[in-house]
Inverse folding.
């Protein structure tokens, strides 16, 4: 079974001025002469973590990681102005040209998978391969599963904790209610909502491994910023058309694609991966029977590291 590569520090890191007052945090690690790869985190708004660097062979990859606008170490933290999917895609191109990369492997999970697909559809000539985990397709049905009549059936007690904060009315969009509470006058209610939202997401992501004290230990500022960005993108339907990702799969480059999905994924159910496979017949699809949405479970790390190793072997000169 594959495990993470040894701990590694960035060989370079900087904040790139991306325009609109945004500075995007970027770091590089691994072999400067290796296969270029860009890692796209989920959320939106979560940011990269140190273990993400360890998914990739430092001898074979030149790994680029970034915190998307308003997320992680990018500044201004939590900023929503000029924070759209189109701007994120433009940031990726700015990073690529700044670093002098011609083509790179796109490696993303959850929202990062959606962003990676959108990037490859817009800039197919810049993509040499793709590895996508727990793919999110940003359709109405995906939001409905997460917020309306899907996942709440699996963890009704956790949803009840969130719904206690929301004055939900029949026929009223939950996203609108979330917005009204979060941008209302009650500061305590805002923090309670951001924390309950994080607990809901963590429960669905981690399943039986969920530890509520982990969310409780997060800083209130971090919780508020991440919730603000997630709500911003969800309310705007991720700034793309309904079913756009699937409809534009014909624009993807003819490069190796690996789709990895947990059978027990309660954030992005596995039908998303099967829908992608139908639109990208050449893609390799791996369904992990004991994995969920988490990118850090033992089974998922084994599959991700192995997929990255195979991709490097195919693309290395």
């Amino acid at each position: 079974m594959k495990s993470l590569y040894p701990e590694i520090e960035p060989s370079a890191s900087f904040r790139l001025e991306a325009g609109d007052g945004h500075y995007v945090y970027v770091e590089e690690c691994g072999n400067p002469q290796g296969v270029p790869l860009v890692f796209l985190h989920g959320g939106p708004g979560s940011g990269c973590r140190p273990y993400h660097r360890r998914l990739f062979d430092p001898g074979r990859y030149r790994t680029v990681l970034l915190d998307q606008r308003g997320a992680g170490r990018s500044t201004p933290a939590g900023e929503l102005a000029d924070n759209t999917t189109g701007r994120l895609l433009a940031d990726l191109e700015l990073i690529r040209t700044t670093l002098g990369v011609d083509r790179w492997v796109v490696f993303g999970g959850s929202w990062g998978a959606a962003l990676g697909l959108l990037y490859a559809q817009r800039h197919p000539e810049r993509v040499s391969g793709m590895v996508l985990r727990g793919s999110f397709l940003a359709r109405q049905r995906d939001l409905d599963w997460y917020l309306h009549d899907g996942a709440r059936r699996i963890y009704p007690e956790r949803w009840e904790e969130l719904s206690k904060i929301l004055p939900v009315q029949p026929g009223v969009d939950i996203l609108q209610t979330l917005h009204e509470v979060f941008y209302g006058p009650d500061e305590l209610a805002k923090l309670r909502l951001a924390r309950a939202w994080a607990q809901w997401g963590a429960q669905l992501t981690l399943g039986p491994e969920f530890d509520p004290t982990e969310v409780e230990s997060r800083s209130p500022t971090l919780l508020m910023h991440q919730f603000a960005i997630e709500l911003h993108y969800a309310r705007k339907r991720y700034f793309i058309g309904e079913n756009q990702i699937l409809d534009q799969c014909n624009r993807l480059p003819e490069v190796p694609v690996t789709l990895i999905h947990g059978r027990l994924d309660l954030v992005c159910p596995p039908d998303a991966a099967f829908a992608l496979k139908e639109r990208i017949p050449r893609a390799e699809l791996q369904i992990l029977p004991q994995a969920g949405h988490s990118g850090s479970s033992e089974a998922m790390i084994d599959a991700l590291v192995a997929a990255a190793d195979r991709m490097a072997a195919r693309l290395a000169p």
Q: What stands out?
A: The chain has a mean pLDDT of 96.
